[in-house]
Design a protein that fits this description.
GO terms for molecular function: galactosylceramide sulfotransferase activity. The protein contains 17 helices and four strands. The protein is mainly α. The chain has a single domain, classed as Rossmann fold, CATH 3.40.50. Helix 4 (90-103) links the parallel strand 1 (80-83) and strand 2.
Length: 425
């Protein structure tokens, strides 16, 4: 047996072990946690708003920014549905939302026992931790498969729906890297460069009925609750896009993250302070795409629905920027970048992200994809002054740890982490 065959054989074995484990885990989880999902909950009308007075009174603090808001004083919007799509910098955005929620003492609708709403099954109200009909929630932001009617029965009527998209070629590459091993049909793709091999002839390997196959085709469209295997000219594609257009007040773009945040600040009447962030959950060496122009084209062709979706919302995005004012946008983005840079020099040891092995505190270790340690994290600077210590810590804290701190019980997620540690995945 050559070394290569050996490696392939080993990777197949790992795949099998993992597959078996995962399947068993899933069955166990469903047994443990779905019975309540089938109870029909009584329908109680949702309130108009879940903002309390204190946060309504919070308004723009400087005359300058309110002048910019055409002279209108506004209150920060606190009722928010953030549709967290996969592999779209959404961990970074969640950190922003968590801090905003804490600042205004908002109530989050969190999942129970794990960090998503039983993705990939459709969202249901009953999956919300401690949910009872008629309760008031301000923010929902964990991974879910979007299900509008069910969300409308949970969230107040004034909720702002926000989401974020990413260039589908990049997203596909990232998803292939992160989730590929969880999709059994990838195990039989030969060679070391499975991504290229797959894109050269996707239909040879792709099986829509295979476990987890949605991770590798039109994942965005799937996350929004739509059918990711439709033909591009199917009328349901247009309908799906229209549904998202009608429901979401703001669709941000990963490629223009800062501009997106400024649009968000404008739409929700937030402050610049609310937008400060460090890039979380970034993959090592991910700033430059490894896709050649040919592979990129193939990837877009393969994810044609997501490409159409992305192009559509790219158009609306830049129309919004035009309305906001290009010059004004450029100034605000420059200000935000400057503020983030200042924060980085205050909070981060060495000023930048480091590989997992060089992160000293376990609290700061990010969650890793199956089979490797490629996600970067940070070391908090030592000897920080009191004023910054809390903020810096929160800004750098990976999602899972922050969720725990906010009181989410993550026993399934944690158990899974321990299993992986034991089999040294
Ligand atoms: C607006 O901000 C500038 C500095 O950014 C300041 O010089 C000016 O006085 C402010 N205007 C008002 C009306 O507060
Ligand atoms: C997004 O829109 C801008 C402005 O209309 C355009 O220049 C750019 O090429 C578009 N990008 C994509 C990926 O469609």
């Amino acid at each position: 047996m050559t070394g290569k065959q050996m490696r392939q054989w080993k990777s197949m074995c790992k795949g099998l072990v993992l597959g078996t484990l995962l399947t068993s885990c899933m069955i166990l989880l469903y047994c443990l946690s779905t019975p309540q999902a089938h109870i029909t909950l009584p329908e109680v009308p949702v309130p108009y708003s879940c903002a309390h007075r204190s946060s309504q009174l919070h308004s723009k603090s400087t005359i300058n920014s309110s002048q910019r808001n055409s002279g209108q004083n506004c209150a920060a919007k606190v009722d928010i549905m953030f549709m967290k799509t996969h592999k779209t910098a959404s961990s970074t955005f969640l950190n922003i939302l968590f801090r905003f929620g804490e600042k205004h003492q908002l109530k989050f609708a969190f999942p129970d026992s794990r960090n998503d709403f039983f993705y990939p099954s459709f969202f249901e109200r009953s999956q919300v931790k401690d949910y009872k009909p008629g309760m008031c929630f301000n923010i929902i932001c964990n991974h879910m498969r979007f299900n509008e009617p069910e969300l409308a029965k949970l969230l107040p009527m004034d909720t702002s729906y926000i989401t974020i998209l990413r260039d589908p070629a990049e997203l596909f590459e990232s998803s292939f890297h992160y989730f590929g091993r969880l999709v059994p049909f990838t195990w039989k793709i030969p060679g070391d460069d499975k991504l290229t091999e797959f894109l050269l002839d996707p239909s040879k390997y792709f099986d829509p009925d295979s476990y987890n196959s949605f991770y590798l085709k039109n994942l965005l469209f799937f996350d929004f609750g739509q059918d990711n295997t439709l033909e591009l000219d199917d009328p349901r594609v247009e309908e799906g896009i229209k549904l998202i257009t009608d429901r979401f007040q703001l669709v941000m773009l990963v490629e223009h993250f800062e501009e997106s945040l400024i649009l968000l600040k404008d739409a929700l009447c937030w402050e610049m302070d609310d937008l400060l962030f460090f890039k979380l959950n970034a993959r090592k060496g991910s700033t430059v795409s490894k896709l050649t122009p040919e592979l990129r084209a193939r990837s877009l062709e393969w994810n044609a629905i997501d490409w159409k979706l992305y192009q559509h919302f790219n158009q609306t995005f830049w129309k919004k920027v035009d309305t906001y004012g290009r010059q004004r946008m450029a100034e605000d983005v420059a200000e935000l970048r400057q503020r983030n840079k200042e924060m980085a020099s205050i909070c981060i040891e060495g000023g930048h992200a480091v590989e997992a092995g060089n992160i000293q505190e376990t609290d700061m270790q990010p969650w890793q994809p199956i089979g490797e340690k490629s996600i970067m994290g940070y070391n908090l600077k030592k000897n920080l002054d009191k004023a910054h210590q809390k903020l810096c810590r929160k800004m750098l804290m990976p999602e899972i740890q922050y969720l725990s701190e906010l009181g989410v019980n993550l026993w399934i997620t944690k158990l899974w982490g321990h299993v992986r540690d034991i089999i040294n995945w």
